Amino acid sequence: MITPINSFDQIEIIPESLVVFDIDDTLIRFDGIDLKWWKNKIKKYMVMTRDEQLAESMANSDLIKIMNTCDPELVDNQVHNFITRLQESNCHIILLTARDENIRELTIRHLQSVNLNFEHIYFNQNKGDELKKIVSEQYQNISNIIMIDDMMANLEDIKQKFSDSNYTVKLYNIR
Predict the structure, then answer these.
(1) What's the CATH code of the domain at 115?
(2) Are residues 90 and 52 in the same domain?
(3) What percent of the chain has pLDDT over 70?
(4) How far apart are CA 80 and CA 73, in angstroms?
(5) Residue 32 confidence class, pLDDT cut points 50, 70, 90
(6) For a surface tag, which of 5, 105, 149, 158 has the fewest beta carbons within 10 Å of its beta carbon?
(7) What is the DSSP code string of 128-167?
(8) Helices H, strands E: what count in the chain?
(9) pLDDT tens string 136-160
(10) Is 58 found in the same domain as 24?
């Protein structure tokens, strides 16, 4: 089951869980940049190029320009309190983003600009497969996984990839 939420306060903390956060539109956001912005950019560039990969590349280039010149804001002002509660509950915290690995330093700068510091940041658009790999390689001893993401498709992918596992997986769709 995927639970819709609009605040981190709505998430049940299970001690010693692996907690997985998406970054964009889950932890941080940029003013005026959202899914609608992205779709409009793709549409505009598709009209110009008639090439989906090129249109995505051009939209991504526009996004990176904005990300290089603007500081993000927190999606939820309760995020610091929530992370403190997770740490007090001995949870393992990782970030799993669809951002490209080549903007790792920019990603870290964005997180630090809102006082978020994480040791483990993973970059992969295929979040289900990546999380399965991460868990099998580094977190075999956990039994609970909590995933927070703004994109339903990512949560559905994780739900499907872990459907036959022994893990208890709690999925939260932040809006």
Answers:
(1) 3.40.50.1000
(2) no
(3) 100
(4) 13
(5) confident
(6) 105
(7) HHHHHHHHHHH-TT--EEEEEES-HHHHHHHHHHTTTSSS
(8) 6, 8
(9) 999 989 999 999 999 999 999 999 9
(10) no
Range of the domain at 129: 2-28+74-174
pTM assigned to the model: 0.90
Instruction: Report d(CA 13, CA 106) in Å as an integer.
Output: 30
Q: Helices marked H in 13-151 — which ranges?
A: 35-49, 52-69, 79-88, 104-113, 127-138
Instruction: Identify the bridge partners of residue 121 per DSSP, sorted by sequence position.
Output: 95
Dump pLDDT digits (tens) for 78-130: 999 999 999 999 999 999 999 989 999 999 999 999 999 999 999 999 999 99
Residues 103 and 85 in one domain: yes
Q: Are residues 18 and 60 located together in one domain of the fold?
A: no
Pull the structure tokens for residue 61. 């280039």
Contacts of 61 (CB under 8 A, 6+ apart): none
| 79 neighbors 22 (Cβ within 8 angstroms) | no
pLDDT value, residue 116: 97
In this predicted model, what pLDDT tens digit does every residue of 42-67 receive, in sequence order?
Answer: 999 999 999 999 999 999 899 889 98
Q: Are residues 44 and 116 in the same domain?
A: no
